[in-house]
Amino acid sequence: MSTVGIIGSGDIGGTIARLAVEAGHQVVLSNSRGPETLADTVAELGPQASAATSEEAAAAGDLVVVSVPVKAFPSLPAAALAGKTVIDTCNYGPERDGHIPELDDNSLTSSALLQRYGLGAEVVKVFNNIYFKHLLNLARPAGAADRSYLPIAGDSATAKSAVIEFLDSIGYSAVDAGTLADSWRQATGTPVWGTPHGPYSNEQGQPAGEETIRAALAAATRAGF
Ligand SMILES: NC(=O)c1ccc[n+]([C@@H]2O[C@H](COP(=O)([O-])OP(=O)(O)OC[C@H]3O[C@@H](n4cnc5c(N)ncnc54)[C@H](OP(=O)(O)O)[C@@H]3O)[C@@H](O)[C@H]2O)c1
Question: Ligand 1 pocket by C-beta < 6 Å: which residues?
Fold first, then answer.
């Protein structure tokens, strides 16, 4: 079992924390307002959970989840993230994040931008294409016929392996979607984003197997987002 540092403990970060605790991992949660504001969440999650500053969460994690608005990337604790495997759940949305020219003109993916900020960290993009309630409700044990697959993208084979192992432990399998430069195929508005798991109105979500995720990734076009 490992320790998962979580930077951004909202809908998605909080759901990953819950699944991680259920799988037997330790989690160290953080947000922008300080550890004391996470007391209720930590109490709910139990003794495997604690709250800390973002720096401390990054330092504590064997894996570090970054689950914040993209506009918060410049304030992430870069020194503490150095050398870490970082799971990036984030989606860029100019209405929330403001306009970031390299993302608007598709010269960078948002995960490649994060890789730039996390000096020496190995970023792996995953969880960005699934609604948090579906993420909670679609977790299944290894071998279950209705296990869901999630696309993962990253530049380091070692970091990807660590993330695949973590995914497996919390109830998901992975489809390799290539490098961080390739991760536009799973960005907001692409076929693999949201749709395979069904509408938000169905909180239970719809399992999406390997072929469904592969086909959705293959159907992505640059003009499509
Ligand atoms: N919601 C979904 O279903 C979903 C699904 C896939 C991907 N995503 C993506 O995942 C990311 C998180 O989404 P969310 O829905 O979980 O957002 P959310 O519920 O609004 O939570 C955002 C979290 O980030 C924290 N945060 C903001 N700025 C920070 C900073 N500078 N340092 C540390 N923590 C900071 C917030 O802390 P405070 O509350 O203290 O400010 C909060 O805990 C976004 O990029 C989103 O597009 C969301």
Answer: 7-13, 30-33, 54, 67-70, 72, 75, 89-91, 127-128, 131-132
CATH of the domain at 128: 3.40.50.720
Residue 87's domain comprises 3-224
Number of structural domains in the chain: 1
Contact 83, 123 (CB under 8 A): no
Rounded CA-CA distance 35/177 in Å is 35
pTM of the model: 0.97
Find all residues with CB under 8 Å of 70, minimum gap 6, and list them. Answer: 90, 91, 92, 93, 97, 100, 103, 110, 113, 114
Residue 102's SS3 state is helix
Ligand 1 centre to CA of 224 (Å) is 24
Atom 7 of ligand 1 has which residue's CA nearest to it?
128
Closest C-alpha to 171, from 197, 145, 135, 141 = 141
Instruction: Name the percent of the chain in helix, strand, coil, to the closest 5.
Output: 45, 15, 40
192-224 per-position pLDDT tens digit: 999 999 999 999 999 999 999 999 999 999 764
Q: Give the number of the atom of ligand 1 that is nearest the alpha carbon of residue 93.
A: 47
Q: How confident is the model at residue 1 (pLDDT cuts 50, 70, 90)?
A: confident
Closest ligand 1 atom to residue 11 Cα is 16
Cα-Cα end-to-end distance for the chain? 38
